[in-house]
Amino acid sequence: MSPPSWFTQVAVRLRTANPYVVDTALAALVLFAVSLQWLFPDEGDDRLTLLGWLLGAATAVPLVWRRRAPFATAWVVSAATPAMAMYHAPPPDVLYGGLVVLYTMAARTPPWQRRLMLVGWVIGATVTMHFKEDARPFEYAFHLLAIACAYALGTLARVQRAYTAELEDRARRLERERAADTARAIAQERRRIARDMHDILAHAVSLMVVQAEAGPVVVRSDPERAEAAFDAIAAAGRDAMAQLRRILGVLKEEQRNGTSPQPGVVALPGLVRQVAESTGLRVDLRTTGEPHPLPADAEVAAYRVVQEALTNTVKHAYAACASVELDWTEDVLTLTVTDDGRGPAAPGGGHGLIGIRERAAACGGSAEAGRGPDGGFRVVVRLPAASDRQAALG
Questions:
Q1: How large is the C-alpha radius of gyration of the chain?
Q2: Domains of the chain by range and CATH?
Q3: Which long-range contacts does 295-299 make (Cβ < 8 Å, 24+ apart)?
Q4: 154 vs 243: CA distance, rounded Å
Q5: pTM of the model
Q6: Are 234 and 249 in contact (CB under 8 A)?
Q7: How far apart are CA 362 and CA 138, in angstroms?
């Protein structure tokens, strides 16, 4: 059963209030309880003296410092309580200050301090009751039970505070991890968009440059071929603009109706045909094994890898022919792009080869690039296939 709302509100206010104000109010309340015999002297037969009241006040006033100096406060109250009991003018009917001290020790002090204080109070209460006049058996049980309850409540408060601190710390760690995950996701998305833009622009611009260089050569001798070159330039530019609009739409978080999805493996024949028609490079596409669906990221990566490899062939290899091979197995799609050119100018490859390796690694695959066995340049990329074809199809 949950506590009443008013109790919860009071507890929250006490936890958030100034601790010195709360402790001063608590000390005043204990002092009031100790002074009840002075306020109502006719209620009992015990003698009342000023020294007895001062000893009672000594069990209450130090509670103002119970959080700043709990161990010292406990010693003062522990000394004043038996002294008041032995002086017996008036005797302490309830160990008000002692109960507060035991609660504080159990809740806030190191293990050896709180255990020492608990043992001391149990022994002290037993000895004091033994020497008290007309002490009855139930008084032993009452005081010992009160001491045990105060210590248990303090222990529960300590455990609850530790549990709350652990939850808060865990929440802070989760928040930091969530922020880190978000930052990593943003960085990965930026890298992905940068790779896409590089692949799109590099491919389109390479085709445009090749056609633009060939156009002036044949503009007089073969007007039809020159016209085809300019048409290829226009087609490459339109395709690049369409793909850039799609990427910019993702950046702006716009949902555009009619936007085509990211190209995948099924778009590779069109890519090969476009490169062959636009550049005059002879490109062969061969497939072995049984094609089957890939994960979405691997589908896009397969297309972009072939696109970037052919772009490098057009830009750097000075090749006459190239081949694209797709080798399908149950678990892996192996893409091999080979040309008969001289390879990239940079020893380790430029940004294009780096992008190919990053795309493959992002999908859980791998990429290799280097000289082919018969000369030229070869790029080999292995991408993991869908582990559950039905899930991939669904």
A1: 42
A2: 5-135 (no CATH), 281-394 (3.30.565.10)
A3: 295/363, 295/384, 295/385, 295/386, 295/392, 296/262, 297/362, 297/363, 298/333, 298/363, 298/365, 298/383, 298/384, 298/385, 299/262, 299/264, 299/265
A4: 67
A5: 0.48
A6: no
A7: 75
User: CA-CA distance, 325 to 288, in Å (whole number)?
Assistant: 8
Q: Is 349 left (phi over 0), alpha (psi -120 to 50) or beta?
A: left
Nearest CA to 292 out of 386, 394, 391 is that of 386
Round to whole Å and give the CA distance between 200 and 194.
Answer: 10
Query: Cα 281 to chain center, whole Å?
Result: 50
Quick count: other Cβ atoms within 10 Å of Cβ 154?
23
Residue 102's Cα: distance from chain center in Å? Answer: 40
Distance of CA 88 to the CA centre of its chain: 63
| Rounded Cα–Cα distance for residues 25 and 178 (Å) | 43
pLDDT by position in tens, the chain (length 394) = 455 566 566 656 666 667 778 888 888 888 888 887 777 766 555 677 788 788 888 888 898 888 888 889 989 988 888 888 777 666 667 788 888 998 988 888 888 888 888 888 888 877 777 766 566 676 777 878 888 898 999 899 889 888 988 998 998 898 888 888 888 877 776 777 677 776 666 666 666 776 666 667 666 666 776 667 677 777 777 777 776 676 666 555 544 444 456 788 888 898 888 888 777 788 899 999 888 888 888 888 888 888 888 888 887 767 888 899 999 988 899 999 998 887 665 545 556 788 788 888 888 889 998 888 877 889 999 998 865 444 444 4
Helix (H/G/I), strand (E/B), else coil: 115: helix
Closest to 307 measured CA to CA, from 384, 206, 210, 208: 206
d(CA 204, CA 210): 10
- Please tell me the distance from the alpha carbon of residue 340 to that of residue 120, in angstroms, as a whole number: 93
222 three-state secondary structure = coil
